[in-house]
Amino acid sequence: MLTLFVLGMVLVIVGYALSSAWRWVAYGIGAYFLLGALGMLFYSKVGKLRLRERLLDHLHWRGDEKVLDVGCGRGLLAIAAAHRVPKGSVIAVDVWNPTAISGNRADSVIQNAQIEGVANRVEVKQGDARELPFPDASFDVVVSNYVVHELKSRQDRERMMQEAARVLKPNGQLGVVDFIFTNDCVNDLSKCGMESRRVRDGFLSFFITAILNLGTVKTYMVVGKKT
Length: 227
What we know:
Strand content: 15-25%
Strand order of the largest sheet: 3-2-1-4-5-7-6
Helix content: 40-55%
Distance between the termini: 43 Å
Order of helices and strands: HHEHEHEEHEHEHE
CATH topology of the largest domain: Rossmann fold
Shape: globular
Oligomer: single chain
CATH superfamily of the largest domain: Vaccinia Virus protein VP39
Number of strands: 7
Number of domains: 2
Structural class: alpha/beta
Largest sheet: 7 strands, mixed
Number of helices: 7
CATH class of the largest domain: Alpha Beta
């Protein structure tokens, strides 16, 4: 975000110093970078919170579900799910890579859950999306936020969907959000006997993001049910 902002400002200043038609080229590219930086700032402060709620709104909640958040990071989705299950529980799993620049740690999930008043129903465990450490049919709901694209191979991504389907109870629900490989998710879940569909994120957020990223980023949600 900072890099985009600096590049944008440099190009705007360069454009101001130019006297030829290149001025408008510099202005245009500079404005694009600045809009990108603004978009990233908005997402980090507001957008990601709204996105998680839109994903969870696609699921049907009783309030007593046992939920699994795969690749929970700092607990953004796990904590939101905990608010939906006042009589249930949430288990948040991640590999907790110590070299990750985001600073994700298991204790950060608990700290954030305490801040939001849901720590009593959030549990953190070490777990790989490709080999979840739980028995078959353990959860009513499985959710995941921007984890699919982190898996490097097609085989790993298919394995993640297989594991999600395996740990779901009959009639259990799944909600996944990502910006690539979501079509593959639907196909992989179908092979596991799950009914699922790909849902475009909100109209404005979908197209604004696509425009800012020249069409390379289009956020979709995969919503499914185990039959």
